[in-house]
Amino acid sequence: MKALKVDHIGIAVKNIEETLGFYQDVLGLELQGVEVVEDQKVKVAFLPVGDTEIELLESTSEDGPIAKFIEKNGEGIQHIAFKVDNIEEAIQYMLEKGLKMIDETPRYGAGGAKIAFVHPKSSNRVLVELSER
Ligand code: ZN
């Protein structure tokens, strides 16, 4: 298996509206869209840059994973997503290598992508997402 590119970088923020100014007005990125992923209690804003994108993640609930992340670490980079061409094969490969997966079967993330998270214990405390779309 081989990661094809950095699909996106997920950044946990308290408030997307208040954060957009930096990305739009300072960095000159364009907001492509906003989507709520009910399953993960998160609102996602997509800002493409080059062939990757920045995803701003705002929790829609006090007990969502992004709210918990901010409570523990403050705002900041929450995960890095790598594009793979076959997520089932990628997960199988990780498991065979003895890595711990948060998702042993893919679930659906923002933009209808099939995603799976590698457990940070297996990736030097970096939350790594595999994404196929
Ligand atoms: Zn992501």
Task: Give structural notes.
This protein is α+β, with helices and mostly antiparallel strands and 133 residues long. It has one domain (5-132): 2,3-Dihydroxybiphenyl 1,2-Dioxygenase, domain 1, CATH 3.10.180. The protein has 3 helices and 8 strands; from the N terminus they run βαβββαβαβββ. Strands 2-3-4-1-5-8-7-6 form an 8-stranded mixed sheet. The chain is globular and about 45 Å long. The two termini are 16 Å apart.
Brief overview:
The protein has 133 residues and is α+β, with helices and mostly antiparallel strands.
Descriptors:
eight-stranded mixed beta sheet, binds zinc ion, 133 residues, 23% helix
Structural category is: alpha+beta
CATH architecture annotation: Roll
Low-confidence stretches: none
Biggest β-sheet strands, sense, barrel: 8 strands, mixed
How do the strands and helices of this protein lay out in sequence?
Layout: E1 5-12, H1 16-26, E2 33-37, E3 42-49, E4 52-59, H2 65-73, E5 76-83, H3 87-96, E6 107-108, E7 114-118, E8 128-132
Parallel strand pairs: 1-4, 5-8
Antiparallel strand pairs: 1-5, 2-3, 3-4, 6-7, 7-8
The structure holds zinc ion.
Residues 8, 10, 55, 79, 81, 109, 129 line the site of zinc ion.
